[in-house]
Design brief:
The protein is built from seven helices and two strands, in the order αααβαααβα. By secondary structure, it is mostly helical.
Length: about 190
Amino acid sequence: MTDFPDNNRFAPPKALLVEPGSLGDGPVLAGRGQRLVAAILDGLIVSLIVWPLFFVFGRMSLLAPADPASPAEMFSNMGRMFGAMIPGYLVAGVVQAWSLHAFGGTLGKKLMGLRIVRADGSRAGWVRLFFVRGGVCVIPGFIPLLGALYVLIDMLLIFRDSRQCLHDNIADTIVVTASSSTNASLEASKAR
């Protein structure tokens, strides 16, 4: 071996590669893929709650024959079916509210090892998470056409460097790995 420095211009660069979210001492931002899987898990969990309750409360509306020539009867059946879905969504809402309070995130985020915190890294209260962050996601989606456009823009904003969706910006939150935000847990907030 020689004592000459390696000046090989064809050698790969020797740079330290780190995730953009881990450059500071604060919490590490969650990856987009992790957030996508957490959202899919949340959808599955809500479905496992809503659909069984729908079939329990809505079996009569499913079995009732509807005359296609009678619009009033069709709308009546639809109303009963939507009414049968309300108990499931109420239970799912309570489960998600409890999860947001206890873990600082939904059940899907908990399974993926993620947590929702304030932009400064402190714990976000469940009122902010459930009503502000969740409300800004769900309520605009009910507006025909414009709601779908809002939801699309909300989701696409995750591709910014901050990895925040529009609902994150409005609620002043970020999604981070739970292991990097131990000071934002419920236990840590009780210890203060």
